[in-house]
């Protein structure tokens, strides 16, 4: 119930920021109605859970995004430098990264962060064997193996998120 | 006429456009689908950010922060969805037995069987 309320607040904030029209009562009520309808449909579809509305991530994800952004910029510069040589300086490498995350949500965040960083691309996620990563260069592959991003993504998962994930799995 | 918001926004948009060209060049130049995806992800991430930041600068200076927030939403939605598309392409290629051309395989041969 609290999660549905959180989703409603989030949708309402998104609507207010996107519309920018605050002095027109008809539009205002139509916006409120569409937010309510959205929450209702999501509720009926049973997607208002820890994955659809991950409120448990909270401030951790806000702290993670700037770090990820800086990593993306650094990786971009590295890949651009490799590409702009007369002969592209690449050494394609496949590695497996053993995931440290405890929930599917954490693993998805980790795999998406790998793909979002240029120079590394997650190809397959396997519960037992970890994430199969294709890297443009051997250095990039070693960066994945250093598990820095892996640890940070595992740090995103609070104990509460872990509990909720188990509750949602066994209804 | 040429005050600093115009110059800043121009520099950002032009460098974003340049990175898009670098991404396109890499997509043509590199040998196989996986390495090409790496080049394409430059266009997906930093080039998009630079162009959107360049568009946001004049509206922020003019005090129209709602426009900047909309551009931020565009960036967030793009950065949430583009890795999923890249993953789908890489995953589909790998399991269609399109073996990557590798210099190093650090998976103890397990990578090929998956």
Query: H/E element string of chain B?
Result: HHHEH
Unreliable stretches covering 5 or more consecutive residues of chain B: none
The poorly predicted ranges of chain A are none
Helix count of chain A, per DSSP? 7
Cα distance, first to last residue of chain B?
60 Å
Instruction: Write the H/E string of chain A, N to C.
Output: HHHEHEEHHH
Shape of chain A: globular
**Which strand-content bin applies to the residues of chain B?**
under 5%
Strand content of chain A: 5-15%
Mean pLDDT of chain B: 87
Structural class of chain B: mainly alpha
Question: What is the number of helices of chain B?
Answer: 4
Number of E strands of chain A: 3
Structural class of chain A: mainly alpha
Main sheet: strands, sense, barrel of chain B? none
How would you describe the shape of chain B? elongated
Describe what this molecule looks like in 3D.
The complex is a heterodimer of chains A (171) and B (114). In chain A, 34% of the residues are buried. Chain A is mostly helical and 171 residues long. Chain A is built from seven helices and three strands. Chain A is globular, with a radius of gyration of 20 Å. Chain B is an all-alpha fold and 114 residues long. The A-B interface holds A 14, 17-18, 20, 72-73, 76, 79-80, 83-84, 88, 90-96, 111-113, 115-124, 126, 129, 132, 134, 136, 138, 141, 145 and B 19, 22, 25-26, 29-30, 32, 34-35, 37-39, 41-42, 44-46, 66, 69-70, 73, 79-80, 82-84, 86-87, 90-91, 94-95, 100-107, 110-111, 114. β1 (93-97) of chain A pairs parallel with β1 (104-105) of chain B, so a sheet runs across the interface.
